Amino acid sequence: MSDADEMILAGSRPTAKNPIDDLHSRTSTVLLVDALVLSWLIFAYTGIAELALLPGIFAMFVWLGYRKRAAWAYWFGPMIMGGVTLIFSILLFLQLILLLTGGSASIFMMLILAWAIYSSVRFVRIHFHPVYKMGY
After folding, report:
1. Residue 68, φ and ψ in degrees, nearest 5
2. Could you tell me if 8 and 14 are in contact, meaning their C-beta atoms sit under 8 angstroms apart?
3. Which of 46, 59, 126, 130 has the fewest CB within 10 Å, making it most exposed?
4. Rounded (5°) CA angle 67-83-26
5. 27 φ, ψ to 5°?
6. What is the Cα 49 distance to its own chain's centre?
7. pTM above the 0.70 mark?
8. H-helix segments, 19-106
């Protein structure tokens, strides 16, 4: 190997750009989706658009800062992802209770929620990895 730029992190796909930059791009995309989902869920359950706008605008500012690797946004990113993961976990638990009590619960929705929980937890864990912290 001629230099360290050719190093590939274990488990990552070889790309033309830095593997940490690629991972940061994917984590930023997950944060953007979680920010949009958070706003939509608040609106869907309260019906008040103004109530959904405040956390939505805050989450979008965090996403913009996180995407540009602002130091202040480093801790807000996993807070938003963790918060949405908690909401997904509660919804999955309610769907499971509904299914077990004989109500009409969607197994497909439960699978989607379980996958979203798994994916978000994985990205939060990656966020706190020492190599990712150095690249942030």
Report:
1. -90, 5
2. yes
3. 130
4. 30
5. -65, -40
6. 23
7. yes
8. 19-46, 49-67, 76-100
